[in-house]
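Let us work through a complete example step by step.
Step 1: write down the sequence.
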Amino acid sequence: MKKIISLILIALMSLSIFASCGKSNKPSGSSQTPVSSSSSEDSSSSSKSSSSSSSSSSSSSSSKSETSSSDDSSDSSSSSSSDSSSSSSSDSSDTGGNVDTDEPARETIVASKKTSSGFSYEDYEKVTSTYNRNLFYYNECKFEVADPSVIYVSKAQSAEYGGYFYAYGTSDQLGCHGLQAWRSKDLTNWEDLGPVYRPDLMTNWARTNFWAPECIYDPVGETINGVTYHYFMFYNADLYSTVVNNSEAGGLLTDSTTPTLGQSCRRYMSVIYATSPVGPFVAPEGVANLDGKILDHTKPVFDFYSSNGINNGYKCPNTIDASPFIDSDGQKYLYYSGYGASYNGYQCIYGVKMKDWLTPDYSTVTMICEYGKYTVGGTKLDEGNVNEAPFMIKSGNTYMMTFSIFPYTNVNYQVRLATSNNPLSGFTKVNPVKGGTVIKTEVDWNGVQSAGHHCFVHVGDQLFIAYHTFKDRTSIAGGRALAVDECKILDYNGGKIIATNGPSLSYQPLPYDISGYKNIASEATIGVVGDETGDAKYLTDGLVQYHGSKSYGDYTADYEAFGEVRVTMTFSSYKSVRALMVYLPYQYDYRFKGLYNVNLYYNGGVVNIPHVALDEEHNYDLGAEKTKVPGGALILEFADLPINKIEFTLDNALNSDGDPIGTIGMGEIVVLSNPNGSTGTVTNVNKKYSYLNAEIPVAVKHDQGKVLGSVNVGGTIYHTTYGFDNLIAEDNGTEGATVTNRWTNDQYAFFKGVNSETVYFEGKINVYETTSYLNDKFPKLGLVLKNYQACTFFYIDAADNYTKKRLGYTQSKIGGGDWDWNGTEVLATKYTAGKISYKGGDNYVKLAIAREGDNVKMFCEDVKIFDVTGLRGLGAGAQAAAGFLCFNTGMKIKDYKVITGKDAVNAKLAEVEAYSDNWIKENGGSTTTSGMFGDLDDTHKSATTWDISKDYASGNDLYSSRKLVLNGTDNNENLLFYKEISNTLVYMEGTFNATAINSNEKWGKFGYKIVDFYGKNDTSGKEGAVKNGVFFYVDAQDPNGTGTITGTSVGLAVYENGKVTFDKQTKGGVYSYGTPIKLGVFRQGGRFIFFVNDTEVFRYDGSLTSKANPSFCSFNIGLEVTEYRITTSKTDNMINQYYVNEVDENGMITVTFGSADSTRNGWKEIGFTQKRTGGATNTSAGETVTFANVSGEKLYFEAEISCTGTIYNNDKTPKVGIIVKTGNCDLFFAIDALADGKGDAPYFGGNNWVCFGYRTTTDGAYPGAWTWCDTEGANYANFREVLGLVYNSSGSAKMQVLYENGNIYFAVNNNVIYQINAGTIAGLAGGINVGIMAFNLNVVVAGGKASTDDTAIAKVKANLGYVDATAGITVDGDLSDWTTGNTKYSFFDNSTTPLGFEVMSKMGEKGVLVGVHGVVKNINTSNKDWWLNTNVEIKAYSPSNVKRQVYINLKNQDMFVGAYAFNYQRNNNGVYDVYFEFIVPYSQIGYTGSEDAVWVYFALRPGTPANANGVSDKNSAGQEWWTGTVHQDQQGYNGVWLKEENGVITPTAAGSTYKVTKDGITFVNITNV
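Step 2: predict the structure and record it as tokens.
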């Protein structure tokens, strides 16, 4: 606003000013005292915000400032550091830093830009690609995306994914056939993450037009199919369901009953979800929502046209632009734009309350904003018939619905605002000239066109708006692109508006949480010569005026009247300053062209910069239309300097006559400071300034490598997935190029552009990790051929902690999803000499695939393993992507290459096959050691009567034609041993064909013999006499000596303690001489199952429990044995089918300790010698751990723990307990064995406390720091007292953990101590491993047991108090089972909607059972202090007059509570029903359970008074705690004191309490004792 200054005031000014300036374009820049000054009203709050956030950003900001500072400035940094002690004292006594006559003289240094010596700076005079991306960003619109959704994930939110902005949007790169994502750390360079969701377009309900994804982070999350998801993405797409009938009520509506790809169809909305921001996002499949609707891929999740309950006026056949919102009370809503039906093609905004993210409450659907009207049904407003892209935010009690108007191809496309005090009604659009426009472009702007379809992003305390504009900034043609600008919520004109610093097309400060530098201009006292109205406050309000809004403005002054405009900014103390930004005014005609005489008053001197020129080319459009580039600013950047005052003079622009323009102005002043930077005395600033990121960091996308990348297969783009992004820059096409996968799940790397049906590709692969990701027991890695019909995978099975040497191939199942693991796989025994070595170091295995049409050959180390035809999807002419694939394992690939073209492939194939054939000839079955059979040792040798020349190894190409032949007889048993198998868990089978009777045998037999041996010879001279075992045989008798076998039976002979009994079991009619017979044997310990032709015939439990060597055995019968195999793998179908867990009467198995991988950091055995079944002993110092051989997604584990009294390392706080480990999280439930201060023995008698700690991990590696607090951060709430806890040499403590449905329960001696609900701790997901950990304690562990059985776990939960059969109560939060014999006491006020609570209680088997139902206006779960959250508190009085405080709240904070459950929900009266159900163990309150009664006192607290909405959140007396009689604060008691005499408990003082018995509760008010 132009300031008109009177001539009288002009006359009063110093003549020297006129003499020095006049109309000259070069003012003197002399320092002048401001006529008036203005301190920002926000400086106090800004300062508080700075201090509150400094601790969280100190470490990051330090490193960030270091990366962007000059290497030359390191000297000054070190000198500042050395003066830290003195500077600290000087800062404390600083009077404010104002430069006046009393201040000592400072040395003045005249700066010179970019000189080799002296103070230097950068003024961004010209637009280059070398601006400091650690401090600024620029909306460069590098990639195409429309309808963007942007979220920011902080490091505090996720250690793995934090520090990034994630953007999702409508993607032309995917042809709108899926949803794509990008991420960025600096808002300038965006990394392409590729598709995060692409369904099977052949079977999915939608095939195209996947539009407008909106992603929300739900901090609470929702559990779906046992997995807790926090990231929910809503989108719309076109329906392509062929199961549609428009005439049927409730049917999905399309424009065609048989739509095909490309047809116009109705648009529906759906939702997908993920556990991380990078996905993969998954759609519900077979999931029932809260209305009982089964959701799957054949239909969208939401139907806002046909669903029951929708008001007919609000039904929309087309719904787009879904936008989720979580209110401050946790209630979820969904907003969207709908059109068609009642409003034809015109778009309106609708909203609906959500029961959960999968279930709308369709009865609440309502119109929020009607196109072209201020209110629904109200006054008209010009909006171009479009209200779309809704996004809701809330400020205080004001709901702010923001939306876009006009079509996106219109230059007037912009974001508008409507407000209400209700999330679903009463919205009024704010007048656009009174702040109703959130962001827009001006018609005369040539650099930015169109700004809309937005979202808001919170980054720390700052708010940003993300929106799309056009990639071609000069027109509205072509693709759209993402832009981001800062905005603020303002109180204005009696309401709230959103002011945006945008749309910008210039350098802007990065968010403080990213750069570590914040704008502190508002903390300065600012003075401007000539300012007499106080408008200088607009210069530091954090708002840059882009339009003519009256809510905030620019500062302008009359240049001609005063000769110069001098600005002074004074800080109350020294600030570590990095940059100064002076924004141009909104009006082009008030522009300035630079700064003169910039003075920087630092701690030790003054820097004077004579002149700084404005980059006019960047900040002005100098063409025919003279306009300002939006958001332009002069930027002055230098190395961090402790400054307490800044002065500068504006350099006026010149008109066409060469004279200064009469009015000059500024838009805003920004001072960027590091709150954690040094403010000590600086002795030398003569250092050249530069920043380290002078070049644009090029983010190599996953599909931009030289060799690996993306490939188009029949119109579908297959991308190299994000797991290979980290080192894909190394994919430079050279011989030594190596790429690495570092991510979980399925990760692909495809040869770029290769889709030929004639192809040869190879690569050397290596596992560099020491264990798999996500505790995957069967990780795999190898080569892949992929198209839309199938994925064919040639793999190394890296099971058994990467020790397995198994090769196989498989294909994905029809319709996608899982793999067909019933496919072929072989044990690569021919490589046992070291051919296959893929783990760690330089151990690589070379795999290759050659494909010619429908024939696929697979090679390992140039030896052919498989040669197959007829694979699904790989017929003649079918295209397929070629590349690499791994499951949940780190993988490196090197020496990878691909060959296409028939001649080239055939030449390579001939070379490789020649080598392969020669190798097989030399090694395949030519010696007795090549296959399965041979001699055990020098004593136990196989009979020489067997021909095993065709005993081909399982990896041999001739394996399928393997055959064993018994040609003669040794007149004994003709034993042929499996040379390497003696396992107690084994399955074996083979097909036997009898060919001859030798030695005129009449009682011949043949089959499997599995026995142990003792001694070398028995009295009969037989080698290795048998002690225990079995002989499963065909009874091949020829009793008449006819030379023809007439026997038809099979039988079982058993050996017990050296004695053999034949025909222990027999079955006739199963064998016919001349017909081959298949025999099979399953063994698990002493349990045997026998099969004939795949049919079970016998079972036997015998005395053989130790290892034993199986063999073929024949009594003088010639044989041919084919199709034989043997396996010890639990994954084998036969073993998996018949394996039985060995359990005790309670369903428990005895665990074995010492099962962890000894090579992986964070998952290894440390200490704990003498590991054994059921127990272990630790004798080592430090953090020691041993793991049990159990894991699972549902698991119970217990162990008895005792301490010998020996402490290591003089530890004052040694600990021991259960460790629970997942892929990304460790939990430690421990006895806090406090030492007595001497360090020589635990203070066993003085502490009965347990504690809980956790830590997140990266790839399983320990970070080393435990968080010793509960999951809410309240340190005191972590440590829990356990009465009667014994863990020294006189007894042991039974420590227990139960993991079920993502919830973890920790218990001691059957008392639940901690209950941690699913989703509470980041990284706690999937299966768990359990073990024992100790800190500096000598520990003995015994009684280790575990179970995954549902029945056993149900029994455990009952033992833990969740089920009380006697009382008929199940602790599950449902109070409907409190029906008989339980007197309820209710206390409600007399309000219109009665508030209060009712309590139920009775003595149970293990403790006092309690049920509480409260009706409250508000609930609270957000406070660190337990008592400020909605809770139930009990004061229990023991017979020994000990008052015990017991509590439980809605935040899972509790004390002395065992099993518990709670829930709450908002009822139809707008208030909350809160339910608590729990047990208080007798042992925790000084009872045994044999008493007749327990005396307790109950109270309910609704929530934090500060958050209460009036007295309705208190009881009728206005008290904060609701009780049954009078107010009881958290310290007071009004209970009855008790005494015990001869087993009789009587009250000793007047008061009121409850008497709880096995029948229920009685209220007692004793006035006279």
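Step 3: interpret the result. The chain has a mean pLDDT of 76.
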